[in-house]
Amino acid sequence: MSPIDHTSGAHVDFSAPSPLDPQSFAARHIGPDAPGIAAILQAQDQADLDALADAVVPAAIRSGALQLPAPVSEVAALAELRALAAKNTPMVQMIGLGYHDTLVPGVIKRNILENPAWYTAYTPYQPEISQGRLEALLNFQTAVSDLTGLDVANASMLDEATAAAEAMTLIRRTARSKSARFVVDADTLPQTVAVIRTRAEPLGIDVVVADLAGGELPVGDFFGLLLSYPGASGAVVDHAELIAEAHRREAKVAVATDLLALTLLRAPGEIGADVAVGSSQRFGVPLGFGGPHAGFMAVRADIQRQLPGRLVGVSHDSHGNPAYRLALQTREQHIRREKATSNICTAQVLLAVMASMYAVYHGPEGLRRIAERVHGRARTLAGRLAAAGVEVEHDGFFDTVRLHVPGRAAEIVGAARDLGVNLWRDGADHVQVSVSEATTDEHLDAVAGAFGASGAGDGAAFGGLPEAAARTSEFLTHPVFHEYRSETAMLRYLRRLSDKDLALDRTMIPLGSCTMKLNATAEMEAVTWPEFAGLHPYAPVSDAAGLLELVGQLEEWLVEITGYAAVSLQPNAGSQGELAGLLAIRGYHASRGDEHRTVCLIPASAHGTNAASAVMAGMRVVVVGTDTGGNIDMDDLRAKVAVHADSLAAIMVTYPSTHGVFEDTITELSEVVHAAGGQVYVDGANLNALVGVARPGAFGGDVSHLNLHKTFCIPHGGGGPGVGPVAVAEHLRPFLPSHPLAGSAAAAGRDAELGADRPEFGSIGAVSAAPWGSASILPISWAYIRMMGGDGLRRATLTAIASANYIARRLDEHFPVLYTDARGFVAHECILDLRPITAATGVSVDDVAKRLADYGFHAPTMSFPVAGTLMVEPTESEDLREINRFCDAMIAIKGEIDKVGAGVWPATDNPLRGAPHTAEELAGDWEHPYTRAEAVFPAGVLPSSKYFPPVGRIDGAFGDRNLVCSCPPIEAFA
Ligand SMILES: *Cc1c(COP(=O)(O)O)cnc(C)c1O
């Protein structure tokens, strides 16, 4: 590792950046060049970035230089990543347990996973500029709903285990039984059982893991049941009778299942299930040491309005054409603060898009052929082993063969490893072999050899699917699953969809709180390298030596950046980091006999996930008010702390605040809460204003989550993936997430003392399916920090703050900036108040957001944290030209608003109300009081590079009344 970087910001040479120059990456990541930064600073009367830091960041919280390795060039960082990758051993993976090798079609890998048009897109809250990814997600929902035989599927869950846990709480809300017991089939993936236990405990749900193989349900009441189909052991059992019995006992039933198996198996909906969950990983998404992958959930129509997560639905636009948008929620409907039913926000959109395109590309026949080949190979293997005298435990299975090998399991698994194959060992006597799409005859030979059954290549196939479980119904009948079989057709379909969308590869996305910064190509490159992409999460840790070294370094750097003592990278979104952090607080209080500390103070302006996470952690939310300046009302805080002193668990604050201001009361706030025995949770979503400038762990925080998909350059993927590490002070270290199978697998097996050599694992249980969550995208954040160095990160932070203040100053006279600090500064984002404009002219935030699409921009964050406002965050990555282009567009829009206000255009018919305008509007009749040119080529928009939104303004309410969440028939588009 290189020496520590102590250089200060003043001496960077921007004149000759070369990819070999250690300073060059920071100069490219940071958008404004030296003259640009000078102009930005001059506009706010600051001499340099250090002066700005003095003016904006409260002195009490400022930190010294980051002790990080000196930055390296892009070339050097990639060489280091290559060296780390070389320490990994991607074996032939036949472990199974929810993770299967898959053949990622090249056209999907390159044109989605490696294509910024897809991976740099934002969550489709602005549907008119998101029709491409919304269509892809609708395909995903249609595929899941068809295969599971259930009415409605959502647009992804974080993983299979959290989907199962959400199924448990969904069932609890909707089942008739008022029991607190939830029964889980013992033949369920261990990680799923672990996450269910973590989620159940704070909610007072009693999880009963029961062996249901005999077809008997436990005695006594229970509100719900989770079955696995196929089971973790590979067994396929017809569950129809058990489900009927559970229904007779007023419980609802969720089934954890496998989409590939369902091409051959009777659908869960057809055997009576109310909910189906699982992972779509084996539909063309790399293993990646456990993630990211798209989990799924599908439900019957009677509970569709209770579905957590995002749901894409069909509605129509202002011209009556079908159009897609997120249904039942402008923002997440299920994150209704303390009435929340789930905290999921960022999901797994990019991976759901990949899985959907795998289904589109293969179609129903292709998927069935893949499934038959997998199943056939599993039967052949079982036959060969049986012929050699090995006891095959189940004769009903799809892809996983479980062998009873008394006392020989370790020896067999070791022999397979010597032949390059990872198998699963369950105790001393059992081995499981899981066949995938990538399994070849040579792999089967190696496995047979490991069992001492080599040569017996001709044993009759053994076992199969129970007859009662055979699928007879059709699936994927929609034309979209039949029209793109050639690579040419597929390539063009992907291009056609991505061309409909505005992502970071076309425009700045100035979304406050979401930090849409550069996702540099050099950061992205390692993600698809087979040495990272091909690792099974339960492979022996030695297989992942290089990736775990990278994990260790990243944890160390995040500890240095945040000022905390330890970091867990397991949570796979900010929401899950919040839950993990609050569970750590809960565990800490419980360890001191303070179980009664359950009150969580949350400011009125907090992000919805905060309150939702608190409820999920078994806490009671008490809201703290804000004063007229937007700051936390310290008098109210002191009063609430006094009232709840005995039961105070924590306060959750975002810093800088969601109002985009550095509040100078943060240290005092921490003291007040600590004095009453509470813990301080600092929501780290706004860490982009703090890195290298202040450390939450040093200014009063006990725990924070970070969003690596905001501050640390993991792309947003159109709404996921994410990584939400939880960082804690020393006293909370024992309460970090753990995992039942961390660092185990083939060499160690299920009975080993798991994760004992990994000090980052604590005691609150698992919050994600995989031990290191979305491990395969961690090289992105690693590369960012490695190439920026401490000083580069600090300059990035201060540039982001400088640019936000520049925008605030330029736009204030047109759209008043709602909150600033006492000296008139904002932090890294600013809230533009449109409420007076709306009151005076009728022009709403919606109108401005849609009109920005006509100008080729993605809208800022709408109505969060204050209704009727826009929150703008430029980040450090936008150069001055783009920032000015945005300001110019906003000022031109203000000119249009003024014309509405002056009566030049009527309030009901003007370019804002009519926005966005489509290419279709260039032809045919035109009956508006403004011209076509004013509509589609407003100031600054060049006809030669014009982006046309593919649909006009979408009517969301219509779609919510008439909920349609799978692909509409093709005639609808006639
Ligand atoms: C983005 C955000 C979250 C939630 O993070 P996800 O990764 O979407 O789950 C929480 N709090 C704030 C302030 C945020 O901006």
UniProtKB/TrEMBL annotation:
<dbReference type="InterPro" id="IPR003437">
    <property type="entry name" value="GcvP"/>
</dbReference>
<dbReference type="GO" id="GO:0005829">
    <property type="term" value="C:cytosol"/>
</dbReference>
<feature type="domain" description="Glycine cleavage system P-protein N-terminal">
    <location>
        <begin position="28"/>
        <end position="448"/>
    </location>
</feature>
<dbReference type="GO" id="GO:0019464">
    <property type="term" value="P:glycine decarboxylation via glycine cleavage system"/>
</dbReference>
<dbReference type="InterPro" id="IPR049315">
    <property type="entry name" value="GDC-P_N"/>
</dbReference>
<feature type="domain" description="Glycine cleavage system P-protein N-terminal">
    <location>
        <begin position="482"/>
        <end position="738"/>
    </location>
</feature>
<dbReference type="GO" id="GO:0016594">
    <property type="term" value="F:glycine binding"/>
</dbReference>
<comment type="subunit">
    <text>The glycine cleavage system is composed of four proteins: P, T, L and H.</text>
</comment>
<dbReference type="Pfam" id="PF21478">
    <property type="entry name" value="GcvP2_C"/>
</dbReference>
<dbReference type="Pfam" id="PF02347">
    <property type="entry name" value="GDC-P"/>
</dbReference>
<dbReference type="InterPro" id="IPR049316">
    <property type="entry name" value="GDC-P_C"/>
</dbReference>
<feature type="domain" description="Glycine dehydrogenase C-terminal">
    <location>
        <begin position="796"/>
        <end position="917"/>
    </location>
</feature>
<comment type="similarity">
    <text>Belongs to the GcvP family.</text>
</comment>
<dbReference type="GO" id="GO:0030170">
    <property type="term" value="F:pyridoxal phosphate binding"/>
</dbReference>
<keyword id="KW-0560">Oxidoreductase</keyword>
<keyword id="KW-0663">Pyridoxal phosphate</keyword>
<dbReference type="InterPro" id="IPR015422">
    <property type="entry name" value="PyrdxlP-dep_Trfase_small"/>
</dbReference>
<comment type="function">
    <text>The glycine cleavage system catalyzes the degradation of glycine. The P protein binds the alpha-amino group of glycine through its pyridoxal phosphate cofactor; CO(2) is released and the remaining methylamine moiety is then transferred to the lipoamide cofactor of the H protein.</text>
</comment>
<feature type="modified residue" description="N6-(pyridoxal phosphate)lysine">
    <location>
        <position position="710"/>
    </location>
</feature>
<dbReference type="InterPro" id="IPR015421">
    <property type="entry name" value="PyrdxlP-dep_Trfase_major"/>
</dbReference>
<dbReference type="GO" id="GO:0005960">
    <property type="term" value="C:glycine cleavage complex"/>
</dbReference>
<protein>
    <recommendedName>
        <fullName>Glycine dehydrogenase (decarboxylating)</fullName>
        <ecNumber>1.4.4.2</ecNumber>
    </recommendedName>
</protein>
<dbReference type="GO" id="GO:0004375">
    <property type="term" value="F:glycine dehydrogenase (decarboxylating) activity"/>
</dbReference>
<dbReference type="InterPro" id="IPR020581">
    <property type="entry name" value="GDC_P"/>
</dbReference>
<dbReference type="InterPro" id="IPR015424">
    <property type="entry name" value="PyrdxlP-dep_Trfase"/>
</dbReference>
